[in-house]
Amino acid sequence: MRAGTIAVVVLFLATASQAVAQSPATDSGTALGGGPGTTDTEGQPSCRRGDRGRLIRYRRVASHPTPASTRAYFDEWIAFYQDLYRFPPDIPVRFKYGFDSYKVTYCTVDAVLPGQSTARPTIVTGMVSVPRASGRLSTVAYVRGTAASYYDAPSNPNTFGELEPRGESFEGPPASAVFAGAGFIHIAPDYLGFGDSSVPRHRYFHAATETSSAVDLLAASRPVLARLHVKQNKDLFIFGFSQGGHTALALQRELENAHVDVTGNATVGGVFDVEQWFLASLANETTVTVPLYISYLLLAYDDIYDVYGQASDVFQEPYASTVSELFDMQHFWDDILAGLPATSRALLTPSFYAEVIANRQHPMRVRLRQNAVDRSRLDAPVRVYHSPLDEEVPYADALVSIDRLRRRGADVTLRTLPPLDHVNSWIQAMPRAVTWFRTLD
Q1: Spelled out in words, what is the top-level CATH class assigned to the domain 3-273+381-440?
Q2: Which residues fall within 8 angstroms of residue 49, CB to CB, at 6 or more apart?
Q3: What are phi and psi of 161, to 5 degrees?
Q4: CB 155 within 8 Å of CB 190
Q5: What would the CATH number be for the domain defined by 275-370?
Q6: pTM exceeds 0.90
Q7: Rg for the chain (alpha carbons), in Å?
Q8: pLDDT value of residue 10
Q9: φ, ψ for residue 276, nearest 5 deg
Q10: By the 8 A CB rule, do 181 and 99 touch?
Q11: Secondary structure in 3-state letters for 251-314
Q12: 382-386, strands of its sheet edge to edge
């Protein structure tokens, strides 16, 4: 992101709420902005250059009026996934408030794709969840982990339901309940490719678009909160899970480079060195999700950077003919896994597998390295939650990244979790982060 672009967004962050402070409160949806070029030829909302962070519309999509209803919402999600993840009964979560959730549609930018000279403006969606609490409230920018279906996004409040048009959301319900239920304004971008985004495939582990979708939602949320008469205090926290750990550090870096204060940043199961995670995943022949992550990375980086010629150069048949369609953002997670082999070695051609491991200057590895987030100085304190038994993101790799950040002057604290898997680590870390955030605000 160019400095001039983010400066415009930061200015908007500071001034947008003042521009609409006298507008009446509403949850029925509204459009802000306007003028030539804000709709397409069919009358649908669109974004143009210079529109980053512009709010298009918002609407209330969920309401949990009391702490008891917030607890019921969280417990419903736990019960739905209990057979799969075996959550323990002692999750240290407390709910002090009810909350309301608003789906927000706004403008951001896509990646600079092959053959383009600039990033094109695009529409994206996200969720703003507001606790039913008085006074000035702290804000948590929540950045989510890996998903592969357009409907599996924070702006979808449903734990379960029909696939069309409001299918299941994995991370959205428990995250909004934990943070908004604790009294934080919860702001969570869907990322490009999810929700109502028209981008055909998510830009997986692409730091610039992960960051722009989050920065621009922070801007677009200001007029929403103003119209709802919700007041923010100066404290801005970040929380990221898995892929979201990558986004969290990239977001902190971008905000601090633009002189926006971040109060604290917490991650769990986070990927910070994407190249190392890619290599570790290639070597991992026991975790069933690894071929999905490897495929997703290869397809997304080819979309963004053109890192290989054709699918058959990378993927073995029959996967070369089917893998792109599996990642069309329309398939269920389990259906994608069912369409892939058990290991990356069975997924990839022997020549590509050997070359990408041996050649540090392979185009894929060069681009992965460019998206690392553990090589810059960060000012606000960072707390890294990680389990030694995390089966998807190696604990040892997290230690290496923490050391890199510390050597660059970052205040990073490791909190080693009990022996938990990737998802249980996340569920346990969120309420712990709430407690830590309260010591900083």
Answers
A1: alpha beta
A2: 118, 121
A3: 160, -175
A4: yes
A5: 1.10.260.160
A6: yes
A7: 21
A8: 54
A9: -65, -40
A10: yes
A11: HHHHHHHCCCCCCEEEEECCCCCHHHHHHHHHHCCCCCCHHHHHHHHHHHHHHHHCCCCCHHHC
A12: 55-64, 99-109, 121-131, 185-189, 136-143, 231-241, 264-268, 382-386, 412-416
Give the tokens for residue 172.
């959205």
209/119 Cα distance (integer angstroms): 10
Low-confidence residues of the chain: pLDDT under 70: 1-44, 161-166
Instruction: Name the 3-class secondary structure at 266.
Output: strand
Contact in structure between 185 and 231 (CB atoms under 8 Å): no
Percent of the chain with pLDDT over 90: 86
Give the residue extent of every domain in the chain: 3-273+381-440, 275-370
Count of Cβ atoms closer than 10 Å to residue 340 Cβ:
22
Tell me what pLDDT residue 166 has: 55
Residue 368 in tokens: 């992965």
- As given in the structure block, the two tokens for residue 86 are 């075996």
- What does DSSP say about strands 121-131 and 382-386: parallel, antiparallel, or unpaired? unpaired
> CA–CA distance from 277 to each of 192, 226, 270 (Å)?
22, 41, 10
**What is the SS3 assignment for 334?**
helix
**CA 141 → CA 237, 245, 348, distances in Å?**
6, 12, 36
pLDDT at 159: 86
Asked if the bond preceding 431 is cis, omega within 30° of 0, the reply is: no
Query: Tokens 């003919």 appear where?
Result: 321
**Per-residue pLDDT, 2:** 37
List, in sequence order, every residue forming a beta bridge with 60; answer none if it has no partner.
102
Q: Can you give the pLDDT at residue 224?
A: 98
Residue with tokens 């920018």, as numbered in its chain: 141
